[in-house]
Amino acid sequence: MDDRRRDHRLDRRAFVRGVAALPLAAAAATAALPPPDEAPRAAPAFAGLIVRQDEPSNLEYPFATLDRFITPVERFYVRNHFPMPRIDLPAWRLRVEGAVERELTLTLDELRRLPSRTTTALLECAGNNRVYLAPRAAGVQWALGAVGNAEWTGVPLAAVLDRAGVRGAAVEVILEGADSGATADFPPPFRTPGRVQFARSLPLAKARQADVLLAYRMNGADLTAAHGQPLRAIVPGWYGMASVKWLTRLVVTDRPFRGYFHTLDYAYFERRHGQPTLETVTELQVKAQIARPYAGEVIAAGRPFRVFGAAWTGESEVDRVDVSTDDGRTWNAARLLDRPVAHAWRLWEYEWRVPAATGRYVLKARAHDRRGRTQAAERDLGRRSWMISHVLPITVAVR
Ligand SMILES: Nc1nc2c(c(=O)[nH]1)N[C@H]1C(S)=C(S)[C@@H](COP(=O)(O)O)O[C@H]1N2
Ligand SMILES: [Mo]
């Protein structure tokens, strides 16, 4: 076993310890179990992440266990394209170069001494819900849990760009991570470019938004290795691929970046003047997901059931969630909980008066945002393997 793999395992053990300390009601629940044929108890206290891939590590949050606004670090999904990079923390530096007045080499201490900002932001992988696509699409087969909501602390990217002095002709900044690997083979003639370092760019206007951070803390503690230690980007309102982990280099460029993860990966077709045009994945789509009931859950007939979930959107705010318990024939407004928080998810609930008639029921949820966007009923095939935001059915058994 090489060192990288050993580190990875150690990280897992720390993760399991963290989960054991979670205040889940498992012990109390088993003490008072109802008779076996009596209907539903509380949510299953599944305390961990689902392994979608072991190496590189791709771990999914069991979305049915959603019970709070902030996702604990140990339960936050992990999406890695390559083996985790080994970073020598004392030797780590962030380089800032390209179309700048002054090239910079910053230590973590120097970054920590700059004015910091804390923001809550949801991250959702652009491949979240991919397992629901038919025919099957390439990539990690995520169900509902490649999403989480955390609190991030760091330096606004704009502050670092200002220190370096962005030159007039610049249009984007490339964010490069320390991890690299051979990219997937594509059918000929799209040969793999060979070894690639994970990188994504941001247009300067987005890069300068106040909540776009170079983050070193997550939920009040230093970033863990899996989430990008020592420094990662947080790009609220965009799909997760923009939030580059293990940052080592920022390159300001005078032309749009057309790197691997903008073109061969994370690119979808949009019709422009009737022409399917490849665009890179950026802003989050509006979406509601049902956490409870989960698919296949057995629900008591003739009693109320609390349908519960979360909803989010890109550069806007969710202002309505509707729930259907009859496969989309009729819809009722869910109750939005708490207060809206910019860039975060909004938890919601709906009290379902479960009919006395037993059988299969199909539940659906649909979100709407202030910019007037509603979740689509059907999949847009032009989106290829990403941005899976159409309404999904949850089928349950009422007994
Ligand atoms: N360096 C680097 N950054 C990365 C990735 C990666 O593989 N390497 N994955 C991206 C993707 S696709 C997502 S969805 C998010 C996931 O962040 P998380 O693992 O902290 O949940 O990180 C992004 N940043
Ligand atoms: Mo992702």
Radius of gyration, whole Å: 22 Å
Order of helices and strands: HHEEEEEHEEHEEHEEEEHEEEEEEEEEEE
Structural class: mainly beta
Mean pLDDT: 89
* N-to-C span: 50 Å
Number of strands: 24
Largest sheet: 5 strands, mixed
Bound molecules: the ligand Nc1nc2c(c(=O)[nH]1)N[C@H]1C(S)=C(S)[C@@H](COP(=O)(O)O)O[C@H]1N2, molybdenum atom
Strand line-up across the major sheet: 5-4-13-8-9
* Principal-axis shape: globular
Provide a short characterization of the protein structure.
The chain is mainly β. It contains six helices and 24 strands.
Explain this structure to me?
With 399 residues, the protein is mainly beta. The protein has six helices and 24 strands. The strands form six sheets. The chain has a five-stranded mixed beta sheet with strand order 5-4-13-8-9. Strands 6, 7, 10, 11 and 12 form a five-stranded antiparallel beta sheet that branches. The ligand Nc1nc2c(c(=O)[nH]1)N[C@H]1C(S)=C(S)[C@@H](COP(=O)(O)O)O[C@H]1N2 binds at residues 76-81, 123, 125, 177, 179, 198, 227, 240-241, 243-246.
